[in-house]
Amino acid sequence: MSGRFDWPALMRAGMQGLGLRPAEFWALTPAELRLMLGERQGVQPMARAGLEALLRAFPDRQGEMSDG
């Protein structure tokens, strides 16, 4: 994947397919547009195992934080 958006196709899908006005289309985030177009797959929330892996990789250390 090139990482680039196909703006003409997205604009056709949003404005012609979904009936959005231009201002409504441009106010959407890419995630909102994908959801409106029916994409159900996306980044999944972090599960407990992922959080535990982060905690192991970046443990809190005593004395690193101060109250101001």
State the shape: elongated
Number of helices: 4
The tally of strands reads: 0
Strand content: under 5%
Distance between the termini: 45 Å
Protein name: Phage tail assembly chaperone
Organism: Roseovarius mucosus DSM 17069
Pfam family, one: Phage_TAC_6
InterPro entries: GTA_rcc01693 (IPR011739), Phage_TAC_6 (IPR019056)
Write the layout of secondary structure elements.
Layout: H1 7-17, H2 22-27, H3 30-36, H4 48-57
Give keywords.
68 residues; mainly alpha; 4 helices
Could you explain the architecture of this structure?
InterPro entries: GTA_rcc01693, Phage_TAC_6. This is Phage tail assembly chaperone. Helices cover about 50% and strands about 0% of the residues. It is mainly α. It has one domain.
